[in-house]
Amino acid sequence: METAGTAEAAPRPGLRERKKRRTRDALLRAALELFTTQGYERTTVDEIAEAVDVSQRTFFRYFAGKEEAAFAVQEMVEAHFVESLRTRPPGEAPLEALRGAVLEGWDTISDAVGAVVPVELYLRMFRVIESTPVLLAAHLRRSAETEEQIARLLAEREGLDVAADPRPRLAVAVFGAVMRVTGRQWSTREDAGLEAIRALTAAYLDQVGPALTGNWRATGRP
What is the 3-state secondary structure (H, E, C) of the chain? Predict the structure, then answer.
């Protein structure tokens, strides 16, 4: 049996795979730079390919189209969150685990995307998604698929049958709604940096309990 000290490192990708990865990363970064500087709808695949000095055909070897490129880093971030959730302490309550995973995700986001694009570029692209109707619609569609994955993971953590017990999907629906409100509010702020979105996420999640169960009426109001 291998131990931490004797486990073999994963083999390094071959030269061909490394070149393919570099090309994909270069296309992705060029796409996001163009989307965030001149707009998603005004950017063409030809412009993205030209920025990397490759053909349009090469672009389509790596991405089905502009939308896939626009959400590639977002998918990396979501996968990073799901993995963080998967490794949360088993004794945590569902919403506590979700909160811990998303804040841990913001704290370690450079681990998820830093090797491909700067975190600052990812955040700028997030603002573009929020402000571009066609991308926002796609984002909501994709989010529904991710939320189903998260609900199934929560059910697994709690030993529940997600088809018979509505609580995992209800918890994720609340969590997803908070994330959408957070994203919209953050994207309109001037201090739209990493610390700002992390702080806003924490503040909004901390209000879930009071918002759902508290009395909103001011003291003394009839």
Answer: CCCCCCCCCCCCCCHHHHHHHHHHHHHHHHHHHHHHHHCCCCCCHHHHHHHHCCCHHHHHHHCCCHHHHHHHHHHHHHHHHHHHHHCCCCCCCHHHHHHHHHHHHHHCHHHHHCCCCCHHHHHHHHHHHHHCHHHHHHHHHHHHHHHHHHHHHHHHHHCCCCCCCCHHHHHHHHHHHHHHHHHHHHHCCCCCCHHHHHHHHHHHHHCHHHHHHCCCCCCCCC
Question: d(Cα 98, Cα 221) in Å, to the nearest integer?
Answer: 35
Q: Is-contact 125 32, C-beta < 8 A?
A: yes
Of all residues in the chain, the percent with pLDDT exceeding 70 is 92
pTM (global) more than 0.70: yes
pLDDT in tens, 97-116: 999 999 999 999 998 898 89
CA–CA separation, 168 and 68 (whole Å): 29
Each residue of 47-74: pLDDT tens digit?
999 999 999 999 999 999 999 999 999 9
Q: In this predicted structure, what is the pLDDT of residue 4? A: 38
